[in-house]
Amino acid sequence: MDLDPDDTEDLLSRAAAGDKAALGALWERHGARLRQMIRLRLDGRLQGRVDPSDVLQDAYLDLAAGLPDYARERPMPTYLWLRLVTGQRLAQVHRQHLGTAMRDAGREVSLYRGALPQASSASLAAQLLGRFTTASQAAIRAERQLRLQEVLNGLDAMDREILALRHFEQLTNGEAARVLGLSKTAANNRYIRALGRLRDLLERVPGFFDQG
Q1: How is domain 5-115 classified at the CATH fold level?
Q2: Most buried of the four, 63, 133, 141, 196, by CB within 10 Å?
Q3: Average pLDDT over residues 78-106
């Protein structure tokens, strides 16, 4: 979400005109959110092999090359375009490293004219559990993550995706709606239902909320 739309517009105009400082400032403003998106959607088989910083660096070059066309046509809000550019670079990394071992493209949720890598149940489970487990709790955390993955696999793919967009990527309801091709009302209703469904499923896991 652009905190200062007027400033973003100024940076965008200057960057499109060749101002490298403005381009860097525009990228820096959204870097944390883009890095989170990469971490969420990076295939688990590439953890430790692919550095999100390298993906961001290559995406920045893609941004610089495509910015003049984007600034002229404005097909979508600025952050969603930056996210799309970064997601397409991540998809290219997946193809480069995984090839035919990639997930079935049909399982990915289509965004605009292409598809960004899907947030896996393993990645979502890890994000939900957080990074605060102590060494003594490692075994419990591993068991909880497996249970949570099973629960997430029981959700509809669109429900998992809207949870990823709203809860982890922190997109607004309007941004998520545009990404998924839904109305704002439909996107909001889907998010609320997905949260409720997730809660209901977790409550059926014996002791899940009681474990420390």
Answers
A1: Rna Polymerase Sigma Factor; Chain: A (1.10.1740)
A2: 63
A3: 83
Closest to 117 in 3D by CA, of 100, 129, 105, 131: 105
Contact 194, 157 (CB under 8 A): no
pLDDT band at 208 (very low <50, low <70, confident <90, very high): low
CATH number of the domain at 121-203, out of 3.40.50.300, 3.30.230.10, 2.60.120.560, 1.10.10.10? 1.10.10.10
Structure tokens at 74: 């404005």
Q: How does pLDDT run across 15-56, given as a tens digit for each residue?
A: 999 999 999 999 999 999 999 999 999 988 898 899 999 999
Contact between residue 40 and residue 169 where contact means Cβ atoms under 8 Å apart: yes
Average pLDDT over residues 164-179: 92
| Spatial separation of the C-alpha atoms in residues 178 and 80, rounded to whole Å | 9
3-state helix, strand, coil in the chain (%, to 5): 75, 0, 25
Helices 173-180 and 184-203: crossing angle in degrees, nearest 10, is 100
Report pLDDT for 205: 72
Q: Which of 94, 96, 100 is nearest to 118 (CA)?
A: 94
Per the model's pLDDT, the better-predicted residue between 119 and 27 turns out to be 27
Q: Is 188 exposed, middle or buried (0-12, 13-18, 19+ CB in 10 A)?
A: middle
Cβ neighbour number for residue 53 with a 10 Å cutoff: 11
Q: Which amino acid is located at 148 in the chain?
A: L
